[in-house]
Every structure is written in C-alpha cells, then in structure tokens.
Amino acid sequence: MPYDPSAFPPFAVTVDLVVLTVRRHALCALAVRRGEPPFQGRWALPGGFVRADEDLTQAAARELAEETGLRAHDPAVPAQDNGAHLEQLATYGDPKRDPRMRVVSVAHLALAPDLPAPRAGGDASNARWAPVEELLQQGGYGRDGEPVAPLAFDHAQILADGVERARSKIEYSSLATAFCPPEFTVGELRRVYEAVWGVALDPRNFHRKVTGTPGFLVPTGGTTTRQGGRPAQLFRAGGATLLNPPMLRPEV
Amino acid sequence: MPYDPSAFPPFAVTVDLVVLTVRRHALCALAVRRGEPPFQGRWALPGGFVRADEDLTQAAARELAEETGLRAHDPAVPAQDNGAHLEQLATYGDPKRDPRMRVVSVAHLALAPDLPAPRAGGDASNARWAPVEELLQQGGYGRDGEPVAPLAFDHAQILADGVERARSKIEYSSLATAFCPPEFTVGELRRVYEAVWGVALDPRNFHRKVTGTPGFLVPTGGTTTRQGGRPAQLFRAGGATLLNPPMLRPEV
DNA sequence: ATCATAGTCGTCTGCCTGACGATAAACACT
DNA sequence: AGTGTTTATCGTCAGGCAGACGACTATGAT
Question: What is the pLDDT of residue A8?
Fold first, then answer.
C-alpha cells in the first residue's frame, strides 16, 4: 500500500482538554462557551487545532496554558510544585462528530489544584468551573435554575471518559496529589478522594493507609490549622507514582 | 477561534495495530514486512489509512480483518466465542514520526487466541508472529541468527505501550480469556498469565483464585486432557469483565 | 470552662494471599 | 499389571491488610 498523497483523505486534528479540579468538595471541569456555530452559545471543552510543527502533547500543553495559565507538569521532573498533570486520554474520530468536516480530536486529561477564576481570552463569562455532574446531566436545570444544555459535539462522552480515568487512576497512583497545592494535609488529600469518588472515607483508616504507603507522602515539618480543629501535619507528594497495594474505592 | 479551512494544516490519519497472542508459552505480536520506502524491508506493525467515511474503531477492525481474518469482538455482545478483543490504545503524532508527511496514528490493541498462520495479502513471508522481546530488542540477533533491525517508525514504542497495557489490564479485568479459545482449562489460562507477565505462578493458588472469583469462569461440564496429565475441567469466560479483587502480578 | 471540629494513634476481626503438603486421574513406560 | 511422570485439584496454615470503631489530642468558637 504505497503512500499516494491522493490515496488518503485529509483530516483536521485537534486537541480537546478535560481539565479537572476539586472545588468546594466537588469534582469540577473547565468549560468554555462557544462563540460561533456550530453549537454557538453552548458549553464545550477547551481545545483547538494542532499546529503543523507541534507534537500532540505540546498542543495540549499550549491550549492548557492559554485557557488557564497553567504550565503542564514535565513528567521527567517529579514532585514539581507548579503546573498541572497532563496526559493523553483518548482519540475521538467519528465521521459525523463535527458537522462541518472530518475532525479527529485527541483528548487530553489535566488535573489541577483549585485555581482562581478561569480565563478565556480575558472574558470570564465565557469560561467556568462546573461540577461534572452538572455538565454531564442531560437536560434538566442547573443549580442556578437555568436550563442545562448538553455539551457541544461529543464532549459529554469525552468528559465522562476523562472523569472515569481520573476516578480509576487515583486508585493505583499518587495522582490525587495533583489536585492538591504543593503542601497539603492528610485531610485535604482525603477530601480529594471523597470528591472525586463521591463517597465518604473513614479518616482514621485513610490516615493509616496513606501515611503507611512508602513514597506517597513526605512530611515537610510544618503544620497548619486552615481546616479548623487540631493542627495537621503538612506533606508534599513523595517520589512514588504507583501505589502498591492500591487505594481501595468502596463498593457502590 | 473560527474554523477557517485555511487555518489548520491537513493531517493524514492512520490506525496501527498491536495484535497480541500467546504462542508456545510466549507473548507474540503480529509484524508485517514493509514493501516500500521508508523503512523498506523492515518489520512494522500492521496498519493503514482511515477512510473518509470510517470511524476509528471501524478502521482498526477492517485492518485487523485484512491482516488476520479475525472479526473484532463487539463490546455489546459479551462472551462471544469468535473474534478478538479490540480497543483503542493511544495516539502518536510526533511531527517527524513519518519522514514524508504529517501522520497521526491512532494505535489499537487487539488480543487474539493462538491462530493459524498470519496472512498479509496472501504472502506469508511478509507477515509473522514474533515474540515481543525479539521485536523490542534493539540490535542483536534473533533466534534464527539473523540480525534484528528495530521496528519501523515509532512502532517499537507503540508495541511497548500495547504490551504494557495488556500486562496491566489482565490484572484487573477478565481480558486474559481473550487469549484463550472459547473453551479452556484453568491451566491454559494460567499459562496465558505466565506468558504475558513472564513469571511462574503457583498452580494451586491460581486455581483457587480464578475459580473463586464470581463471574470470571463458567464451567461447561466437559473435561479435556489435551495438556496431558489428569483431565481438567473446561470453562468459558463468564460475564464479569472487572475482577475485584484483582489478580496480583508477583513482584519483580 | 465547655463545646465543636479535625487530626492521630490503637485494637480487633475477617478476608485474602503466598507457601506448600497431599491426593487424584490420566498417559508412557517396562 | 506396576511404576513413574505429568497435570489438576483440594486443604492447611501463617502473615498482612482493610474495615469498623474506641480513645485521645490540639486547636478555635461560644
């Protein structure tokens, strides 16, 4: 099968981003409002075209920086204290997913600590953090009473896949720390797990588990009382990336 | 950011396949010999262009059928007794991965039972099952004494990613049964795990574990002695797709 | 001073796993 | 027919880990 330039159809290739964070005990995703058709005025995942000289990961990192100001974590530098975790999620290429032309989208998943307000070209009303349940529910009404329209394109599916990836990946990796600030307490980490999984965890067993897993947490020596109650030790993420044995997600 | 057709570069989109099977106690992958430049004469993963009206999964299933005659498993029909497991693996889009033009390849992973000979356009010398270690080793000499050239393009990386996916996925899913014929014994399933992981497992503990996991195996009532020794019960894959608790891969 | 809140340390029990002995049922020899 | 070899299958036991939960500690709020 020779590579005849006329033998293959041209595609547009984009990256779409599932950017997740934990705000007010809820797992939230970044959504941007579409300014032009199709799906004008509807919420969508941030994304854009891959440039001619760009790797897919570079394109995703560039879009992430444009939308949030976050730098992507360099996987070669663990325990970096700024920047978000970024990884490829999956690729979506249904011929009809974009009504205008053939677009293949390489979706990426980014995990970030709680951030200030999002920005999308400086216009705050065109970008927001929304709880993932709200973005994924079909129809109905959101918390503000406004009717909820489904996400544009196949972005509901992409978001659902990204959420599922995050939920399963914090089981066997230290990725939950990507939702935390550089220094955090065991309780803050536990609230991340509770928000992502949507369950309540026993604080005592959770404490025993995470402090007993070698390389997961490194004490910094400091303490904080920002959550109220007894001061809690502060930790940084340790060098371990894979947790063995894993954290166990409680049964449904 | 409007969709100006002149605002994005055109890409070629291909699917590449990591087709794995277990032959003679070794994890093997399907490789095809390239008939034209670049990398003419070198081994590569099977693959081809995505057509204009095709979904990515359809394209992968079509290539799989062309190369092996296998029909892909329909995920909606569990416990299907013919066809291979097929899932998307990852997407590779380095600007220089193909020296001729910008190609984005959506790699897929297929798992199949031991098959007769592969076919590639009817020419058997242009397709073969090779142990993955042989395909992944850089330089050196293969079992037949011929010098081993690395796989074409970035296919060594793709193959390595596919093998790693398979190794981890049989831990927590029933996917190892995809390497087995429709009816199989516990010993045959154990040899799949041993080949994929490259370890030896205790037959007694393995038997206890897999027969004690609800929904993993369903006895068919028959027995076989094709492995020699005492006749073994035959099983089919049960409805369970996720194993909880998972199979544990022994430490390095 | 008392209460509420959150963090931390222990205990106990049940389940799962790894290590390994023992038995069973076939085949290949002699 | 007997003996050895191979593979399958059942059982036992000890160690480790997780869930349930009691107890104590250290802060701020009333």
Answer: 80
Q: pLDDT category, B79, cuts 50, 70, 90? A: very low
CB spacing of B88 vs A93 below 8 angstroms: no
A139 in contact with chain B, both atoms CB, cutoff 8 A: no
Report if residue B102 sits inside a domain. yes
Q: What is the pTM of this model?
A: 0.93
* Residue B54 sits in the same domain as residue B137: yes
| Co-location of A198 and A81 in the same domain | no
* Residue B74 is assigned to a structural domain of this protein: yes
CB contacts < 8 A (A, B)? 90
Q: Residues of chain A whose pLDDT is less than 50?
A: 1-3, 78-81
Q: Which residues contact A241 (CB under 8 A, 6 or more apart)?
A: A78, A173, A174
Pair A69, A57 in one domain: yes
A48, A139: one domain: yes
Residue B11 and residue A91: Cβ atoms within 8 Å?
Answer: no
Cα separation, A120 vs B20, whole angstroms: 44
Q: Do residues A77 and A192 both lie within one domain?
A: no
Residue B147 and residue B194 share a domain: no
Residues B31 and A81: their CA atoms lie apart, in Å, by 43
Count of other CB atoms within 10 angstroms of residue B217: 23
Query: Of the candidates A152, A171, A190, which is a domain's last residue?
Result: A171
B232 CA, C28 C1': Å apart: 19
Q: How many domains does chain A have?
A: 2
A83 and A202 part of one domain: no
**Structural contact between residues A74 and A84, judged by C-beta atoms closer than 8 angstroms:** no
Instruction: With residue B203 as reference, give the H or E element that holds it.
Output: helix B203-212
Separation between Cα atoms, residue B76 and residue B88, nearest integer Å: 16
Let me know whether B89 and B206 are in one domain.
no
Please, is B168 exposed, middle or buried when counting C-beta atoms within 10 Å of its C-beta (0-12, 13-18, 19+)?
A: middle
Would you call A48 an interface residue with chain B, using a CB distance cutoff of 8 Å? Answer: yes
Which of B124, B154, B171 terminates a domain? The answer is B171
User: How many C-beta atoms surround the C-beta of residue B92 within 10 A?
Assistant: 24
Query: Residue A247 domain-assigned?
Result: no
Share above pLDDT 90 across residues of chain B, in percent, rounded to a whole number = 77
Mutate to test the interface with A, among B4, B40, B91 (most CBs of A within 10 A): B91
Q: What is the CATH number of the domain that holds A128?
A: 3.90.79.10
**B229 closest-nt by C1' vs CA:** D7
Neighbouring residues of A119: CB distance < 8 A, sequence distance ≥ 6: A67, A68, A69, A127
Which among B1, B4, B6, B8 is the top mutation candidate for probing chain A, defined by the most A β-carbons within 10 Å of its own β-carbon?
A: B8
Inside any domain, residue B246: no
How far B111 CA lies from chain A's nearest CA (Å)? 19
Could you list the residue range(s) of the whole structural domain that residue A30 is in? 5-171
The chain A residue lying nearest B121, using CA atoms, is A1
